[in-house]
Amino acid sequence: MWLFFAIGSAVFAALTSILAKIGIDGVNSTLATAIRTFVVLIMAWGMVFLTHAQTGLGSIDRKSWLFLILSGLATGGSWLCYYRALQIGEASKVVPVDKMSTVLTLILAFVLLHEPFNAKSLIGIILLTAGTLVMVL
Fold first, then answer.
1. pLDDT band at 128 (very low <50, low <70, confident <90, very high)
2. pTM
């Protein structure tokens, strides 16, 4: 089931990039990010109430709150940078560099989360990095 959602994520991320590039024309990138964030906020809370997940708010511990807040700050920083890059660059070059987050995530997962790292991971990192370089140079 995770694969279905991962593919959905990739499709929506691709649509996000193209729709954002079209929509950001003539709009301040920070304002565009705020508009996008507002829509995401409404959508996410709508899903929370639709699925009755709001009942779990009281059971979230301090550590989870801290890391969810830090993750939100990282997301905000990422979106602000992404929209500015999209505004001044070509989507076909901005998006591959943005997706280098996959490589960084693999490295951070190994270092911080102690997830397995093997030859297959290393080859994947090398290929993703090489592919990104080919696309942007």
1. very high
2. 0.85
Residue given tokens 């830090």 in the structure block: 70
Residues 85 and 106 in one domain: no
Q: Quick one: tokens of 118?
A: 């093997």
| Rg of the chain taking only CA atoms, in angstroms | 17
d(CA 20, CA 32): 8
Place of tokens 């102690």: 114
Is the domain of 20 the same as that of 85?
A: yes
Per-residue pLDDT band for 39 (boundaries 50, 70, 90) equals very high
Q: Are residues 20 and 78 in the same domain?
A: yes
* CA–CA gap between residue 66 and residue 47 (Å, rounded): 22
**Helix axes of 29-50 and 62-88: crossing angle, nearest 10 degrees:** 140
Give the count of beta carbons closer than 10 Å to the beta carbon of residue 87.
18
- Give the tens place of pLDDT for each residue, 14-36: 999 999 999 999 999 999 999 99
